[in-house]
Design a protein that fits this description.
Elements: H1 5-16, E1 29-33, E2 43-47, H2 71-76, H3 87-97, H4 128-141, H5 145-149, H6 153-165, H7 171-185, H8 192-206, H9 210-223, H10 228-240, H11 244-257, H12 262-274, H13 278-291, H14 296-308, H15 312-325, H16 330-343, H17 346-362, H18 367-381, H19 388-412, H20 419-432
Antiparallel strand pairs: 1-2
Helix pairs in contact: 6-7, 7-8, 8-9, 8-10, 9-10, 10-11, 10-12, 11-12, 12-13, 13-14, 14-15, 15-16, 16-17, 16-18, 17-18, 18-19, 19-20
């Protein structure tokens, strides 16, 4: 897009020596009439800024009065100096920026020469201050969370506490709400500001907002120098930057000072997983569980690592430990049944069916366990090594599970148009595993 020469000179003048802007109400109106077959059609009013180099009105008080220069200059009619350099230099610059016009004292252009010959003048490079102002302007235009949802800072603080206590991992929302709390209401949060700094930093690492994470980390370092908790956050930032060696060295220093720091040991295991070194992660996790045998999260993580390595017997052992400490968790029963089903064999399949049934007893809406019960029972019924009574019982179990699956899909699809297609898909799936008594 070409820039008018007059706008170009005003931009250059404003960049070199900024002048006060004329209020919009004082702008003169320039009317341009465009004829479309009739005179007077298409008349539009275009506001223009009052130019500082325009001749002053009598008395120098109008909207085109000069905004700089001495009172003597204004009374004598002399032009004030709007930019560095002489008037001749500025005149030459204006002539260069307006191809086809003759500078004072210069040769006249040829009659056939176009008025705007040559390329359009390039805009001056944007200064660092202008870039910063632009960024602040863009940030100011972004709607705040408190304005978008009409909530107070107390509501945002309570929402952050709820997310923190219930272990939500909605990092983008935490960053949006937490950043506004930190920037606008830090003085009102009291001691809650420090836990919010930690919460926002971890969410910022999830969202690749290293600038925000670094800001929160610096505030925490300033308040708690030498804290192991803050050092662990520093290590997590190293992990986000894939500086794993630096993070491990930092965690090792923490463990030298406090060997019971479980968070640092877990972070080291997480690094091994991120590096794809599952065997080292399994070894370190076993060493950890020798000291902290009651850590259920560690047992579950070890089971997942064994499953990834296809060591299902050891994964089943870890899940058995979890079911002993928490027998009413239907998810542990379901996962244990899945591991036994994967191991295969008549004995494991029968054990798998029992634990799928136990998971359904604890939570009758567990569809994964319902499908598992149907699959395990149907495989037992079709196993040649199974007795006649075992086949008959498992056919009954599989039929019951199939009816429950159909009912669940019918109930879930009552208000949906695709109900018949969903039911047809389920029926086709069940028919592929149809059980026949042999």
């Amino acid at each position: 897009m070409r820039t008018a020469p007059g706008q170009f000179m005003r931009a250059v003048t404003q960049e070199i020596n900024p002048q006060p802007l004329v209020p919009p109400a004082a702008w003169p109106m320039r009317f341009s009439a465009r004829c479309h077959g009739r005179r007077g059609l298409g008349v539009t009013a275009v506001p223009t800024r009052a130019r500082a180099d325009r001749a002053p009105r009598p008395g120098g008080t109008g909207p085109t009065a000069w905004r700089s220069g001495s009172s003597a200059d204004r009374s004598s009619g002399a032009r004030p100096s709007l930019a560095a350099g002489t008037v001749a230099e500025r005149t030459e610059g204006a002539a260069r920026s307006r191809p086809g016009r003759r500078a004072p004292g210069g040769p006249a252009p040829s009659p056939g020469s176009p008025r705007r010959a040559g390329p359009a003048p390039a805009l001056p490079p944007m200064t660092a201050g202008a870039v910063t102002a632009l960024r602040h302007g863009a940030a100011a235009k972004m709607a705040k969370v408190s304005e978008m949802y009409d909530v107070t800072w107390e509501d945002m603080r309570d929402k952050m506490r709820k997310w923190r206590e219930e272990n939500y991992r909605n990092s983008e929302q935490i960053v949006d709400v937490g950043e506004e709390l930190i920037n606008e209401y830090a003085s009102k949060l009291g001691d809650d500001i420090w836990i919010i700094y930690e919460q926002v930093m971890i969410a910022a690492l999830d969202c690749s907002r290293d600038d925000l994470a670094l800001f929160c980390l610096q505030e925490l370092r300033r308040q708690f120098p030498g804290s192991h908790r803050v050092k662990r956050l520093t290590g997590m930032r190293f992990e986000a930057m894939e500086r794993y060696d630096d993070a491990i060295q930092l965690y090792d220093r923490i463990l030298q000072e406090d060997s019971t720091n479980t968070a640092a040991r877990k972070r080291k295991i997480a690094i091994r997983k991120a590096q794809g070194k599952n065997l080292e992660a399994i070894r370190e996790l076993n060493e950890y569980l020798e000291q902290f045998v009651g850590d259920q999260e560690a047992w579950h993580e070890l089971a997942e690592l064994y499953i990834n390595e296809h060591d299902y017997a050891k994964a089943a052992f870890c899940l058995e430990e979890l079911m002993m400490t928490n027998p009413h968790n239907h998810l542990y029963c379901q996962q244990y049944a899945e591991v036994k089903y994967t191991q295969g064999g008549l004995e494991n399949l029968e054990l798998s069916r029992k634990y799928f049934a136990q998971a359904l007893k604890l939570n009758n809406r567990n569809m994964r366990a319902l499908f598992g019960l149907y699959m395990s029972a149907s495989h037992i019924a079709s196993n040649p090594k199974a007795s006649a009574k075992m086949k008959k019982d498992n056919m009954k179990y599989a039929g019951w599970a199939a009816n429950q699956i159909n009912r669940a899909y019918q109930f879930a699809g009552r208000s949906k148009k695709e109900t018949k297609y969903s039911l047809k898909a389920v029926e086709d799936m069940l028919e592929t595993l149809q059980i026949t008594q042999s």
